[in-house]
Amino acid sequence: MAIFSVYVVNKAGGLIYQLDHYAPRADTEKTFSFPLDLVLRPHDERVVVAFGQRDGIRVGHAVLAINGAEVNGRFTADGKDVMEFLANPANYPVSIRFGRHRLSSNEKLMLASMFHSLFAIGSQLSPEVGSSGIEMLETDTFKLHCFQTLTGIKFVVLADPRQAGIDALLRKIYEIYSDFALKNPFYSLEMPIRCELFDQNLKLALEVAEKAGPFGPGS
């Protein structure tokens, strides 16, 4: 069981804090001969697998490295277009590492804003008056849990579907936010959280939650 990441979103939908706590490694590196038996295509400034799954390589996985050198979006380490490089028989055999695309800071900001909008839509769609909005989204690989305070701050945790104690963890994060962000004289409301004590206590809370430990008084 694991907790993957934590997001804090202000009442305007801006991302003010994000922590990647645990990222499962799903990278796969293989050596290929020409022609490449996978169909690749450019997508959102990167090259992804469009067709053909094999040996842990899945549709949607991005090209992360070629011959051990990291790929920068759609370009090799020396600035060559990845699609053109892989279309040239002279470059084979070639070692390619595939894996899940790492979200950039801008992508995280955009996703936080999108979730803020979905939360509001969920509240409006409710047949009951005063709905709190989205509290949990579930997929086969993770669950998204959300807790919104009375002031509109949202605490979002992405965790393994089997992870227990997330409700208690969300309230513990709120407590840490109150103690180490709001009480910090140098912190401005609605602005990004940059506080070492907040970081330290949040990471400790995540470790306790992963072990399914209780949050008792003084914890």
UniProtKB/TrEMBL annotation:
GO terms for cellular component: endoplasmic reticulum; Golgi membrane; postsynaptic membrane; TRAPP complex; vesicle. It comes from the Eukaryota. PANTHER family: TRAFFICKING PROTEIN PARTICLE COMPLEX SUBUNIT, TRAFFICKING PROTEIN PARTICLE COMPLEX SUBUNIT 4. CDD domains: TRAPPC4_synbindin. This is Trafficking protein particle complex subunit. Keywords: Cell membrane, Endoplasmic reticulum, ER-Golgi transport, Golgi apparatus, Membrane, Postsynaptic cell membrane, Synapse, Transport. SMART domains: Sybindin (SM01399). Core component of the TRAPP complexes which has a function of guanine nucleotide exchange factor activity for Rab1 GTPase. Plays a role in vesicular transport from endoplasmic reticulum to Golgi and autophagy. May play a role in dendrite postsynaptic membrane trafficking. One of its GO terms (biological process) is endoplasmic reticulum to Golgi vesicle-mediated transport. Part of the multisubunit transport protein particle (TRAPP) complex. Component of the multisubunit TRAPP (transport protein particle) complex, which includes at least TRAPPC2, TRAPPC2L, TRAPPC3, TRAPPC3L, TRAPPC4, TRAPPC5, TRAPPC8, TRAPPC9, TRAPPC10, TRAPPC11 and TRAPPC12. Interacts with SDC2. It comes from Mesembrinibis cayennensis. It is found in: Endoplasmic reticulum; Golgi apparatus, cis-Golgi network; Golgi apparatus membrane; Postsynaptic cell membrane. Belongs to the TRAPP small subunits family. TRAPPC4 subfamily. The keyword Endoplasmic reticulum applies.
